[in-house]
Amino acid sequence: MTGTPGPIHPVRIGTVPLARNLLLAPMHEHTHLALRLLCRREGAALAYTEMATPEDLLAPPSEEEVRRHPEAARPGALSHKAGNLLASAPEDRPLGVQLLPRLPGPVAECIALLASRGRADLVDLNFACPSRRVVASGRGGAMLRKARTALRIVEAAVGASRLPVTLKIRLGFTASAADSQRALDIAREAARRGIAALTLHARTVGQGYGGRADWPAIGGWAGALAPLPVFGSGDLRSPEAVLEMLRVTGCAGASIARGALGAPWIFRQAIDLAAAGTYEPAGNRERREAALAHFDGLARQYGEAAAVKFMRRFAQHYARGTPKAAAARAEFQACRTTEALRATVEKWFGGP
After folding, report:
1. Of 2-6, 17-21, 50-54, 198-202, which range is least confident?
2. pLDDT in tens, 219-233
3. What is the dihedral of CA 48, 304, 61, 130, to 10 degrees?
4. What angle do CA 292, 298, 301 make, to 5 degrees?
């Protein structure tokens, strides 16, 4: 006889078994390979690429890319942008690719491409992004106002390959009762059409990232959509928050986004907290090693100049919660060279 599983436990998404129910959420311009690898080493069982439109991944290499790299002219070659979005490594599996769709056709074509080339283990459809630009383009959160198109996209995605298809959604476009019901209806119909799991960011599209996430609503959706696995997202900025959300909602797992920025150890800390009731806070040494590993990974993929630009943003997250964090952030913003960046990391995170 087995007891009730703890808050952190194995879970399955379609045909993909996961060692634990802690996921690194897709984040635009953040979940590069470098960050995914850091989070996986700390216990993230699944990580997603940053979101991309199907059209971007399907676009052929530009004339300039072919001129500079003649091999890009071969049939089926990916563009430089698509190659970077899909860059991975053996230790970066299982891997989810998040698509930001607008129409069914490109979604099906893109998923078939990903499956045929082994570039993904599952595909996530984003019906949640609240960005004004994204919503104005008819994608992301705009799908919650276009139920018929949204479900045609789900059908096309599920039918395109054997890859499990998941869905990321919000509580509604607005907080009105009609919008809330419409969002839940889309989720129910998507489940009937074969999605393997759903992630609920417990805010409305109109809220963006403001206000508090409605964790009890995640529990309500998890019950309404059972047996479909529902993962909770929103306000997961500490290991305590991760465990509390799992306990409050009883959902299948936690999809951690901004809480992992500058703190890839949040996964390990949540695992330790669940197992032992305590965890080791990150010290300067851990921040220094993670920040430099993050930079080195970005430099290998994009080159040092681009990596410095990325790290001007990322390094600020590593300073979060430290003494004089504001001063550290200002210095990281001023970095323009590899030498300056490394020196600044050593200055602020050089202690034990």
Report:
1. 2-6
2. 999 999 999 999 999
3. 40
4. 140
Q: Give strand pairing partners of 169.
A: 127, 200
C-beta of residue 190 within 8 angstroms of C-beta of residue 224: no
Residue 259 per-residue DSSP state: G
What's the mean per-residue pLDDT of the chain? 94
H or E element, residue 297: helix 284-302
Burial of 119: CB neighbours in 10 Å, binned 0-12, 13-18, 19+: buried
HSE-up (13 A, CA, CB side) for residue 229:
22
What pLDDT, in 10s, does the model give residues 131-182? 999 999 999 999 999 999 999 999 999 999 999 999 999 999 999 999 999 9
198 forms beta bridges with 167, 230
Span 11-276 CATH architecture? Alpha-Beta Barrel (3.20)
Contacts 24+ apart (CB under 8 A), 28-33: 28/129, 30/261, 30/314, 32/87, 32/297, 32/298, 32/301, 32/310, 33/87, 33/88, 33/89, 33/92, 33/297, 33/301
The rounded distance, in Å, linking the Cα atoms of 329 and 344 is: 10
Supply 232's token pair: 């909770």
Q: What is the mean pLDDT of residues 104-129?
A: 96
The CATH class of 284-349 is: mainly alpha
Dihedral sign, Cα of residue 288, residue 317, residue 251, residue 200: negative
pTM for the model stands at: 0.93
> Can you give the C-alpha Rg of the chain in angstroms?
20
Tokens standing for residue 299: 């430099």
Residues β-bridged to residue 197: 166
Tokens 């930001």 -> residue = 100
Q: Measure CA 243 to chain center.
A: 19
Coil, helix or strand for 216? helix
